[in-house]
């Protein structure tokens, strides 16, 4: 059997890896600006953590988990994380922060695993850049998170549309749930097979039905069932978004695929990814920390689908930038020794240098310099070495001149600064 990559898993090579790195870098910069600090947590957790948070009736837990029984005495069932939120909450409780210092602001970056049917923008391993804020029950926090996502997408030059909704809380949600149940039972014959299952186990998910969106459009809306505090919370979120100039639409069918949400939910949707158009998603989850054994602390957050953003990005932006400034060509052993020190000097001037093999001929080496897109080639043979010079060739302008070895780093830095590329 050929040892090929697994279905739904990706090798990110060259420009693809750079696009993903660019998204991560941009998200970190924006998060730091919002005074959010990094948290790093394990990729493996107990399966039960996800059953009790993401939700036993969610597709993620029911159908998509990568889990296995560990060989310890208790035969613990472990799972590769399908999302970051439960692990961050677990770590927060583990560290005792929910009681000692509940207001915390975290971001995380890393791989998540879901055994979904692969398609464009949907992978079995993908990266999320997530943010979780604990100890802030106010609507301003929800709005600020969306404003932050807007800042992030603008920094990348990406068009998205925000969809927002409120699912209510423990006080008003039961009435909404009951109304959905009643509506579902009344439309039993029209519901798809999946929805028959959803109806009894989690009627909110009826609204998520991809098979019959038209039918779901006639279903009860959460906004009609919100209690006064939830209504006020949502109105404040809307007001703050409007004031910040973040364009959004209210989507009353936005219930999200995970079970822990209360009040505000949102998604940022991009037309550039295809069917998998949600590039960022999140919302409030005020009961989750308590449900996982912690104190009654509010929570709210979101996660960026890093690969989806990378797909949506204007390809050329991510694809430029990494060609070397200099291809260093040394011929003969003595020149190669001297070139190693020269490369260090040039790199210390913050230029990108690739040293080419000293064991190949000049013609092959110039071809290589061309292929990697180097701006300059520096050529150093026995003759140049003896005279303390190098040939500095501008490969884009096809011009060449001789420069003293000691002056070459400065000359290159000036030339690159004068004619930056990408
Ligand atoms: P989610 O909607 O399941 O929410 O995932 C967030 C984002 O991750 C999605 O909008 C999408 O961009 C990306 N994503 C999800 N599944 C895949 C996949 N199979 N392939 C590629 N990208 C994918 C959460 O995970 C919540 N933890 C978000 C959150 C944080 N809510 C509050 N705090």
Q: Please tell me how large the radius of gyration is.
A: 27 Å
In the predicted model, the low-confidence regions spanning at least 5 consecutive residues are: none
Number of strands: 16
Q: What proportion of the residues is helical, as a percent range?
A: 40-55%
Cofactors, ions and other ligands in the entry: histidyl-adenosine monophosphate
How are strands sequenced across the largest beta sheet?
1-5-6-11-10-9-7-8
Strand content: 15-25%
Structural class: alpha+beta
Q: Given the C-alpha coordinates, what overall shape results?
A: elongated
Overview of this structure, please?
The longest helix has 19 residues, at 15-33. The chain starts with 14 loop residues before the first helix and ends with a helix. The protein has helices spanning 15-33, 47-55, 59-63, 85-94, 97-100, 139-155, 173-186, 193-201, 213-217, 228-244, 288-291, 306-312, 315-319, 333-348, 362-371, 382-387, 405-418, and strands at residues 37-38, 44-46, 67-69, 77-80, 104-113, 125-134, 161-166, 248-250, 262-269, 278-284, 299-305, 326-330, 353-355, 376-380, 389-394, 399-404. The protein is an alpha+beta fold and 422 residues long. The mean pLDDT is 93. The protein has 17 helices and 16 strands. The chain is elongated and about 90 Å long. The structure holds histidyl-adenosine monophosphate (HAM). Histidyl-adenosine monophosphate is lined by residues 83-85, 114, 116, 121-123, 126, 128, 130, 132, 257-258, 278-283, 301-303, 305, 307-308.
